Amino acid sequence: MKDELEKILTNLRDAGCEDGEVEKAKQLYESGDTKALLRYLRICRCNRMEELHESQRKVDCLDFLIRQT
User: What global pTM score does this model have?
Assistant: First the structure.
């Protein structure tokens, strides 16, 4: 169980989750509330997707400038 938790926490950090997000996921895992953990992981995923979309918008702006130059 401890190895599984460490793998989960490492994966969250690798995914760019902040310390607070990792800690909350750890608490949910340790509480045994799988449904709440899954719901929270989906929220974390949505946050990462929003970051991805924001980065894509920035790249699109640069692409526009490159085409115009």
Answer: 0.81
